[in-house]
Amino acid sequence: MGDIVLNNYKYILKIKTFFINFGPQHPAAHGVLRLILSISGEVIKGVTINIGLLHRGTEKLIESKTLNQSLPYFDRLDYVSVLAQEHIFCLAVEMCLQTKIPVRFSYIRMLGLELTRLLNHIMGITTHALDIGAMTPFLWGFEEREKIISLCEMLSGSRIHMGFFKPGGISQELPPYFLKSLHQFITAFIPRLNELEDLLSENRIWVGRILGVGKVSNTISKSYGASGPILRSSGIYWDLRKVVPYEYYSQLSFNIPLGISGDSYERFLIRVEEMRQSINILQQLENLFYSHSSLYLCSTLDSMEKVIFSFKGYNEAVNAVVDSYTSIEAPKGEMGVYLALDGTLRPLRCKITSPAYKHLQMLPYMTQGSYISDVVTVIGTQDIVFGEVDR
């Protein structure tokens, strides 16, 4: 409420608080998200989050299936980072069964994981730019993303829901022409990535829309359980590939980009740099395959005993009553699975923790006092997919 004096007459101006809906049909909601915004003029006073519109009961469905039948459900969680979702379930099963996979399978898995990180960050950055009004990055990025999807199709035979990782290894061997195609992609992608960054990083419209928006301090990041680029943008060094290494990431050399202010602009720069580090990892893995010919050797089922053993492994109950919690550095942040086995083919209990769910709870804090248009900016920079939020 404010007073206005006009020609010696005093008028009382009353500013009323309005409640408006954002989503679930809004194109910038990145899924079926409904927000109830409490606004005073253009300024946001509060945000109420309404989720669950995509809830499918995934965890209970997994508990009614066998271990191998459960894997496709993970493909449908974060459907932008499919191989990372498959990977966390495979690691959980392998940890419960105390299974160690061959080195070659780990290297092939890391190839898929870093290609997945590129897929995710291209989608995240370019759709974020599209939300704000920049269409060119979206067109450029999806041309490169299509090339990565073609590489994934070489690996698995499928473009999106790949089913390539399996508990105990991978579903099929590395194609003999894959590394050559990978090298061609890397060579062409590096200048495209530079062009994308040049287009956005100093663009005054882009910088004006995201610089200083959605700031989070390191204290707030830790209290909400943030991870991934959001946590690292606030200056906290935490990447499970470095801090708690899995597969063979400890043998590779790569950097973890950090921010200072924790705003949307730094998260954009961190994702760009993470793509460069993924390219660096892919190049190291490519060199490892070429320098160690044994990594390219395929193991085939060349005897009836191996065929029988494989069949029994897929169809008999597991001989384990155990539980474990496993987490990985997925492209969006720390993804975890709690898995309990009771000696049968079906999991006794499966619980999933996802980074997007935690990050979404930070939305009221990140948008407090901002303008309505900043809600779109913050949701885009959180890089949310509702398959893993609602589950």
* CATH architectural label: Orthogonal Bundle
Q: What about the largest sheet?
A: 3 strands, antiparallel
Mean pLDDT: 84
Residues in β-strands, percent: 15-25%
CATH class (first level) name? Mainly Alpha
What is the count of helical runs?
16
Helical content band: 40-55%
In total, the number of strands is 10
By CATH, the superfamily comes out as Cytochrome-c3 Hydrogenase, chain B
Which fold name corresponds to the CATH topology?
Cytochrome-c3 Hydrogenase, chain B
Rg over alpha carbons = 23 Å
In the residues, how many domains can be counted?
Answer: 1
Side-by-side strand order of the widest sheet: 3-4-5
| Strand and helix order | EEEEEHHHHHEEHHHHHHHEEEHHHH
Kindly, what is the distance between the CA atoms of the first and last residues, rounded to a whole number of angstroms? 43 Å
Structural class assignment: alpha+beta
Oligomer: single chain
Q: What are its keywords?
A:
Cytochrome-c3 Hydrogenase, chain B; 391 residues; globular; 16 helices; three-stranded antiparallel sheet
Q: Can you walk me through this structure?
A:
By secondary structure, the chain is of the alpha+beta class. The chain has 16 helices and 10 strands. The protein has helices at residues 58-63, 67-75, 82-97, 103-132, 136-156, 178-201, 204-210, 218-224, 228-233, 240-243, 264-291, 304-315, 355-361, 363-367, 372-382, 386-390, and strands at residues 2-6, 9-13, 17-22, 34-40, 43-50, 165-166, 169-170, 321-330, 333-342, 347-353. The strands form 4 sheets. The chain has a 3-stranded antiparallel sheet. A 3-stranded antiparallel sheet has the order 8-9-10. A two-stranded antiparallel sheet has the order 1-2. A hairpin with a 2-residue loop joins β4 and β5. The longest helix is centred in the first third of the chain and has 30 residues, at 103-132. The model has no long low-confidence stretch (mean pLDDT 84).
